[in-house]
Task: structure prediction
Amino acid sequence: MLTGSSRGVPSARDIRGPSPLIAIEDEPPAKLVVDPPLPEQLAQGRVFIQYRAENLRVLPVFGKGALDVSPRVGHVHITVDDAAWHFVDASGETVIIVGLSPGAHRVLFELADPTHQVICSKTVEFTVPPRVGAA
Result:
């Protein structure tokens, strides 16, 4: 029987990672990949940032008991412009930020375990352009 990978087509495992139904021995470290904002949306003053985690499933699972889950689970802390607060994303979907003033901004993404301990982080810097026709 041919698998997706042997036909040159990525398999489900190639895209989605290991099955969440089987524990992984010696899990590799979790990684965070964050793209720059989508330019079409940024030109309209909206910030759409796509991200993904490797070797960690982004899920709304919290607490000390979830530290023993395998494959590993966690969530993302997101801080805009060095604010004293952050919000949490546990969806793994595109992050959308609106209402930023034109000018330079930065968004910090922190991959965190179920107890909110930061595993790794990435910062995205970008400029929101002036709105056409805005005073």
